[in-house]
Structure formats: structure tokens, C-alpha cells
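Notes from the 1:1 (GR / supervisor)

We went over the backlog. Supervisor wanted to see one worked example end to end before approving the batch request, so GR pasted a single chain during the call. The sequence is below; no edits were made to it. Supervisor asked that the structure be written out right there so they could see what the output format looks like.
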Amino acid sequence: MKKAILLLLTCLVFSCSQKNTPIDSTALKAEVAKAEDDFKNLAQAKGIQEAFYTFADSNAIIKRDNDSLIKGKEAIKTFFSNPKFKKAAVTWKPDFIDVSNDGTLAYTYGKYVWTVTDSLGNKKDFKGVFHTVWKKQKDGHWKFVWD
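Structure output shown during the call:
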């Protein structure tokens, strides 16, 4: 019985003594802004498929065409392997970034421009609003879990 009480008291002391280290939300928001910018730059330099694959968390989900959900990093890569994405380009900039109180999740939203080139070389722009949810990885990088 004494051992059980000692163990309980020890657990209580350790749980009460843990300090909640305040996060630096400004620094974390800057990290997410950089991830957004790196994501966009990779899409412009190496293509949409490469960028979405590189910045996707293994369990990422994207919502596309007719509200269908593409689940998982590999499925996202397959989705963007469609040749129509080779003739498309996208650019965006977040208007807003926020980070969770524990610094593990973030979300962004802003405007994007999706440009499609047809078989004659004519370009057409489609504008919209994006919303992305980001998750901080164990290695410190940010990957999207929802787009």
C-alpha cells in the first residue's frame, strides 16, 4: 500500500511540475509562411504533382473535382499524374495564417490562380480561395494534412 501511495504521489508531483512552455506563435507562423512559399515555388519549378507529393503528410487529404476526397500521399501523387496537370500552373499566397496553442497544427487561407494551357497554347486563369491545414512533423518541417 505504501508503494502505491508513493507511486501516486510521485506521479502527481511530476505531472504538476511540468511546465507549459509558451510557444512563439510569430516564429511558427513564419515557418508556415515559408512552407507555403516553398510549396508554391516547387509547384512552379518542378510541377504540381511534385509539389503536392513533397508537401503532403502521409495521411493528407485533398478535396477536388465534384467534392471527391483523395486520401493519402500516394493517392495524391496518382491524382496529379494526370497529363492535364502537366499543362497547368498554380500560384497562391496566404492572406491569413494561424497556429494552434500547442504549435503542432496551423491553417492558412488565401487566393490562388490556376492557369491551364489548352492544346493551342491559349492560357485560361481560374481564380479561387484555398484553405490548407498544416501539421508540424517530428523533424520540424510542416506538411499539409488538408488542402
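Supervisor's comment: The domain at 24-146 is CATH 3.10.450.50 (Nuclear Transport Factor 2; Chain: A,).
Batch request approved.
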